[in-house]
């Protein structure tokens, strides 16, 4: 058990260090300003849905929100031990985009039942043209499985 506790502490440390660096990068290089982030600090489950245009989207969102976001990430991203370690440290969990992945759905429901934020990009991948076409059903399915009140925030470009 001591090893698991150490790994959990190690992952939390990695998460907070990455979050700090990404936040610093966003503020200094991209000059990003966030409005309304306090809306995400309430108690209760929340599903964060957004357009996916860059590999960096989940890292940027995770850095600017006050609570940790547990993102679904394509299973292929977990193929190497290094990226698996980074992604799991950030709270990501794998999803098989080629089928209905019941393990990913169960993991998302478990996070939501613990009052956490689950992030997903319902298009099943990055889209630079024709965003929100071919949306997967998971964004609507997850709230229907909860017994408590849940919130669905959709992020879009202005």
Please work out how many helical segments DSSP would assign: 5
String of helices and strands:
HEHEHEHEHE
- Can you summarize the main beta sheet? 5 strands, parallel
Shape: globular
Determine the fraction of residues in helical runs and give it as a percent range: 40-55%
Q: How much is the radius of gyration in Å?
A: 15 Å
Distance between the termini: 47 Å
Secondary-structure-based class equals alpha/beta
Strand order of the largest sheet: 3-2-4-1-5
Description:
- By secondary structure, this protein is an alpha/beta fold.
- It has helices spanning about 1-30, 55-65, 80-90, 100-115, 140-145, and strands at about 45-50, 70-75, 95, 115-120, 150-155.
- α3 links the parallel β2 (about 70-75) and β3.
- The longest helix has 29 residues, at about 1-30.
- The termini are far apart.
What keywords describe this structure?
single chain, 158 residues, alpha/beta, 5-stranded parallel β-sheet, 5 helices, 15% strand
Write the layout of secondary structure elements.
Elements lengths: L1 H29 L15 E5 L6 H8 L4 E6 L6 H9 L3 E3 L6 H12 L3 E4 L17 H7 L6 E5 L3
Parallel strand pairs: 1-4, 1-5, 2-3, 2-4
Helix pairs in contact: 1-2, 1-3
In short:
With 158 residues, this protein is of the alpha/beta class. The protein has helices at residues 2-30, 57-64, 81-89, 102-113, 138-144, and strands at 46-50, 69-74, 93-95, 117-120, 151-155. A five-stranded parallel β-sheet has the order 3-2-4-1-5, sandwiched between helices.
